[in-house]
Design a protein that fits this description.
elongated, 1 helix, 165 residues, six-stranded antiparallel β-sheet, five-stranded mixed β-sheet, single chain, alpha+beta
Length: 165
């Protein structure tokens, strides 16, 4: 029997069986699968299941439905697909729906000619981002002041060490 396994947050490792027929998912109590989460709509989506296939359909939800990170209105579900409802993610566990052939045959690849360049907003790979440009002058000033103070301290030290004799 197919089931959804929670992958994130408070739903992690929870299992929701997908019976044959229509299984509605949402925040309201009249859904077959009740998910009380602020990013889930009252009636978020419906999973239509029979012996050979399983299909998910978004019910005009506010935060959308995604299958394997692709925004969908309607899509077939297969074994180990990732279903994202709002910000909650589930894995489809349905070995009976496993396919041996590759399902994704369309490739959205673009060929580029010439040199590649990083996007303009890609200033750094640091997770903290690049320091604001207006602070560079302040850092240079502080570096110069610390350098001058260090030199003065060294001159005084050497004067006291060698000047006293």
């Amino acid at each position: 029997m197919a089931k959804l396994i929670g992958m994130t947050g408070e739903f992690k490792d929870r299992e929701y069986p997908i019976e044959q027929g229509d299984v509605t998912i949402g925040r309201k109590a009249d859904n077959v699968i009740l998910l009380d989460h602020p990013t889930i709509s009252s009636h978020h989506c419906v999973i239509m299941s029979n012996a050979e296939s399983c299909t998910v359909q978004d019910l005009d939800s506010t935060n959308g439905t995604r299958v394997n990170a692709r925004e969908i209105q309607t899509a077939d579900l297969h074994h180990k697909d990732l279903l994202q409802l709002g910000s909650v993610e589930f894995m489809m566990d349905a070995p009976e729906l496993a396919t041996s052939a590759a399902r994704y045959t369309k490739a959205d690849a673009e060929m580029t000619v010439g040199n590649m360049a990083a996007p303009q907003d890609f200033n750094t790979i640091s997770p903290f981002g690049a320091p604001p440009k207006e602070r560079k002058g302040t850092w240079y000033f502080l570096l110069i002041v610390v350098g001058i103070l260090t030199l003065c301290a060294l001159v005084v030290y050497f004067f006291m060490l060698f000047g006293a004799s």
